[in-house]
């Protein structure tokens, strides 16, 4: 079962399930904060946004986030949006699918059908 198929069977995660620090096996990270803001590492910027060039990345980039509807499918995902100048000169956005790992823990991955192991983000630290 793909991450996309698993995501469709889960209830939409609450803010409390998303807020915190997430990292992948390669050390790239994303931090979601209450109120719909966050920061993302340069490596995660490149991995998750296919339109971003390395020259557009910053060591850490601010963004806005929310649970939204996938534009081409109707299921839900976590949308991440950059204003112009936050990460490069142009505005940008991408989505993260959420699903349960075999352990039952929530995981995030890029919006691809079969993410590679180093593209899967696990929550490394919850924040209040």
Structural account:
- It contains three helices and eight strands, in the order H-H-E-E-E-H-E-E-E-E-E.
- It has 128 residues and is mostly beta strands.
- An eight-stranded antiparallel β-barrel has the order 1-2-3-4-5-6-7-8.
- It is globular, with a radius of gyration of 14 Å.
Compose a concise summary of this entry.
The chain has helices at residues 3-9, 15-18, 42-48; strands spanning 20-23, 29-33, 37-41, 60-69, 76-82, 92-100, 106-110, 121-126. The protein is mainly beta.
Overall form: globular
Strand percentage: 35-45%
Largest sheet: 8 strands, antiparallel, barrel
Task: Tell me roughly what share of residues is in helical segments.
Answer: 10-25%
Structural class: mainly beta
Draw up the topology in text:
Blueprint: H1 3-9, H2 15-18, E1 20-23, E2 29-33, E3 37-41, H3 42-48, E4 60-69, E5 76-82, E6 92-100, E7 106-110, E8 121-126
Antiparallel strand pairs: 1-2, 1-8, 2-3, 3-4, 4-5, 5-6, 6-7, 7-8
Brief descriptors of the model:
128 residues; mainly beta; 8-stranded antiparallel barrel; 3 helices; 8 strands; globular; disordered N terminus
């Amino acid at each position: 079962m793909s991450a996309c198929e698993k995501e469709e069977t889960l209830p939409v995660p609450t803010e409390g399930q998303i807020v915190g620090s997430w990292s992948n096996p390669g050390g790239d990270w994303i931090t979601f904060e209450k109120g719909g803001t966050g920061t993302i590492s340069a490596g995660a910027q490149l991995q998750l946004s296919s339109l971003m060039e390395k020259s557009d990345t910053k060591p850490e980039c601010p963004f806005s986030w929310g649970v939204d509807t996938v534009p081409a499918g109707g299921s839900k995902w976590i949308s991440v949006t950059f204003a112009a100048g936050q990460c490069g000169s142009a505005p940008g956005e991408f989505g993260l699918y959420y699903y349960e790992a075999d352990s039952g823990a929530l995981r995030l991955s890029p919006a691809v059908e079969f993410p590679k192991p180093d593209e899967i983000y696990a929550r490394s630290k919850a924040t209040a």
